[in-house]
Amino acid sequence: MLVNSTDVPPDYLGSRSEGERRKGERRKHARPGADRRRGDRRRAVVRNVVLATAAIILPHKVKPQSVDKLSPPSAPLVATRMETVVTTPIERAAAVPPEHAYDEFIREASRQHRVDVVLIRSVIQTESAFDAMAVSRAGALGLMQLMPEVAAEMGVDDPFDPRQNIMGGAKYLRRLLDLHRGRVRLALASYNAGAGNVSQYGGVPPFPETQKYVKEVTRLIASSRRNRTD
Predict the structure, then answer these.
(1) Helix spans in the chain (H)
(2) Domain with 148 in it
């Protein structure tokens, strides 16, 4: 039986595989269930998007138990530090006036070396105005302006340490008071100009600086005793 080639679908011409012929046959007809397959593809895309989103989000939300044990949360530590900071009232940080910043050391030195508190305080005021880091042109150091050799003799290792300086200065005043039998003016003159000069002149030396020094300290002593609050 002869077959007219015009009656044969083009896909049947030539040497094609069986699979290709079936593909050609399917192209001749409308695909059944196309709408269903498109819906399946859409659902698959949506499902993939949901799964990908979950894969990104979930690891941040759920931590393995082993990680929790090895790395405890730091929030309690931060909270503890915050509690420590806020429990200190601001009022306690009020500044202490310089003239009263070393009251405790002055009282201690007064008791230990038997030197009047007012005398110690008046010497400090005149010598350094309560500046613990003061250094004079002559090299005197600290609150009571101890010369390095005097500081060493009084057992002061650090003249800029307020307690050591005051203790050493009070100890030196005690020595000078004993030397001059309790006469404060002569002890002050010796503190400023040296005991040798006081002995040489038989009293306060005629040095303007020393005479001004003795006058200023005795004035402060008198003023403090009139308004004594120690």
Answers:
(1) 18-28, 34-61, 65-70, 75-86, 103-113, 117-128, 148-153, 162-179, 184-193, 195-201, 208-226
(2) 98-226
Query: Does the pTM exceed 0.85?
Result: no
Q: Is residue 163 part of a domain?
A: yes
CATH of the domain at 217: 1.10.530.10
Contact status, residue 28 vs residue 9, Cβ threshold 8 Å: yes
Q: Which residues are the active-site residues? A: 127
* Residue 213 domain flag: yes
CA distances from 142 to 99, 114, 160 (A): 14, 21, 5
Domain count along the chain: 1
Tens digits of per-residue pLDDT, 5-55? Answer: 444 444 433 444 444 444 444 444 455 555 555 666 666 656 665 555 555
